[in-house]
Design a protein that fits this description.
Length: about 280
């Protein structure tokens, strides 16, 4: 009986202790073949007898047999699966497409479900009251920062998007009370980004972080943290689901702001659209 498929859908009714083992396996499958029974039990917070019963429920006579089978499955997976363990290198493009679509929809649903009540409203109010708004991000998150700045600028809010660390540091040095800095980061761990927020916060700016890592928002210089649900593997870096989650959060903030100023937002969009038409030589 295969082990990896059972991590999400075990062929037995798992107990609470079994669920601890399954959770550890999902996150650390590559470590288990090299662990002793006592090490595995300690890592999972269970007893050795529980580990023995668990491997038997999984269809194996001993932990050693379980570890050998798991190592073989992991080796086979490394040959057959790309991006993540849901995508098979030999499947058709349409099958892959359906899997990606389901993953993207799931990402948005989980992001929305995890948002605390009132967080978006409070952040949107800060943006409305801001003297200046600066969206910042590096790498793929820089695209989101620039796009967001453009959206808010079109409705009349003083905003700009920065994706260069030198520009970000200079902006932070000149920030002050009434400014709002919105940082976008998948990992939430970019040193340049965090240093920018720290400096801007010291100058009196209100700092928001949009990230997939909730722990990153616990820094004392981050006033508000909006967490989206989009974990990436190494080969998924810059994936559509991460971009979708970022854009979804930004669009939610933007829509909430527009709800507070519908007539002004519409008028500003009309005026900026007319300006663009003039640039193109249209009447």
């Amino acid at each position: 009986m295969k082990i990896l498929p059972q991590m999400d859908r075990p062929a037995f009714r798992p107990s609470k202790l079994d669920q601890k083992l399954l959770a550890y396996l999902r996150e650390n499958a590559g470590k288990v073949p090299h662990m002793t029974i006592s090490q595995l039990a300690e890592a999972c917070g269970t007893g050795e007898a529980t580990v023995t019963r668990f491997v038997k429920k999984m269809g194996y006579g001993s932990l050693q047999q379980f570890k050998v089978a798991l190592a073989a499955e992991l080796t086979e997976n490394s040959r057959n699966f790309i991006i993540n363990r849901d995508i098979d290198a030999h499947e058709s493009a349409l099958v892959t497409g359906r899997k990606l679509l389901e993953a993207n929809v799931s990402t948005l649903e989980r992001t929305l479900a995890a948002l605390p009540e009132g967080l978006i409203e409070n952040c949107a109010q800060k943006l409305l009251e801001a003297r200046r708004i600066r969206f910042i991000g590096l790498g793929n998150s820089g695209f989101t920062a620039r796009d967001s700045a453009y959206k808010f600028y079109r409705i009349g809010l003083e905003s700009a998007g920065l994706d260069n660390s030198h520009d970000m540091f200079m902006m932070a040095a000149l920030a002050g009370k009434g400014d709002v800095i919105v940082a976008v980061s998948q990992s939430g761990q970019s040193p340049e980004l965090l240093q920018t927020l720290q400096l801007a916060h010291k100058q009196g700016a209100y700092c928001m972080l949009v990230t997939a890592d909730g722990a990153a928002g616990q820094q004392e210089f981050i006033d508000a943290c909006i967490i989206y649900e989009a974990k990436e593997s190494l080969l998924e870096t810059g994936s559509i689901k991460a971009k979708l989650a970022q854009f979804f959060v930004m669009d939610l903030l933007y829509t909430q702001v527009v709800k507070k100023m519908p007539e002004q937002a519409l008028e500003n969009k009309r005026r900026t659209a007319e300006a663009v038409r003039m640039l193109n030589g249209e009447e």
